[in-house]
Amino acid sequence: MEERLVIKVSGSLIFPPRKDYIERLRDSIIRVLGAGYKIGIVVGGGSLAREYIATLRGFGVPEAMLDIMGIESARLNALLLSMFLSPHATPKVPKSLEEALEVFLDSHVPVLGGLQPGHSTNAVSILLAEALGSKVIVNMLNGIDGIYRKKEEIGRLNPIEKVTYDEMEEIIKGMKQLAGEYELLDHLGLELLRRNRIRIFYINGQEPELLYRLIVKGERIGSMLSFS
Ligand code: UTP
């Protein structure tokens, strides 16, 4: 079976859009495709989702509706990236795993945003990996080099090279589970990982060339989250 890969792109890398950056990201993804990988992509809601959600939360809008705002924001970010990836991707954002699989089996790159309320696009990337039969996800973070135990360590220390699912559970314990505020990984995502034993590499998405170096050249970059 050929190599399959899911890439999660932080929404804050896509919105507000910067043409030079998105071109570099596209080139990097196309180089990985050229190396023979079959790819699925999930884009987060980023600052677009957070601004919409913060405004609506101020009006007392229920949490599930805020999630829907986040899902649609992520889909808009996904649409932008899919148009940049043409003709490798089609300009239609799959709204279910079935639709994503159809696009994938048609030899295109499915580019998803959100799916349903109650979780983050990180969980979507794990569901997509499961559906596409990929054992690896690359999570492209916005300006953060990998996983840290505490926010205060970001930028001061090197990220943790290797993290187990159990260690990740400790790290995300205190994190909020609210619309627009899921961080590294949500609890659903962790449970999905446990049933599939998928590995996630976390890299700094602001340097999209790292994607090719990590996946094709096999360099050790950022953090790796795995079962053991
Ligand atoms: P994300 O949580 O993925 O965006 O989706 P984020 O936290 O800004 O992450 P990055 O940095 O872009 O990667 C935005 C919001 O959309 C809702 C959640 O409220 C989430 O916080 N959402 C997203 C869902 O409810 N379900 C989904 O399937 C996806």
The helicity comes to 40-55%
Radius of gyration: 16 Å
**Cα end-to-end separation:** 25 Å
Number of strand elements = 7
CATH topology term: Carbamate kinase
Taken as a percent bin, the fraction of beta residues is 5-15%
Strand order of the largest sheet: 3-2-1-4-6-7-5
Give the count of structural domains: 1
In CATH terms, the superfamily is Acetylglutamate kinase-like
Description:
This protein is of the alpha/beta class and 228 residues long. The protein has a single domain (4-217), classed as 3-Layer(aba) Sandwich (Carbamate kinase), CATH 3.40.1160.10. 44% of the residues lie in helices and 14% in strands. Strands 3-2-1-4-6-7-5 form a seven-stranded mixed beta sheet. Helix 3 runs antiparallel to helix 4. The model has no long low-confidence stretch (mean pLDDT 95).
List keywords for this structure.
single chain, 228 residues, alpha/beta, Carbamate kinase, 7-stranded mixed sheet, 44% helix, binds uridine 5'-triphosphate
Strand and helix map with partners:
Elements: E1 4-9, H1 11-14, H2 19-34, E2 38-43, H3 46-57, H4 63-84, H5 97-105, E3 111-112, H6 121-132, E4 136-141, E5 162-164, H7 165-172, H8 187-196, E6 199-204, H9 209-215, E7 223-226
Parallel strand pairs: 1-2, 1-4, 2-3, 4-6, 5-7
Antiparallel strand pairs: 6-7
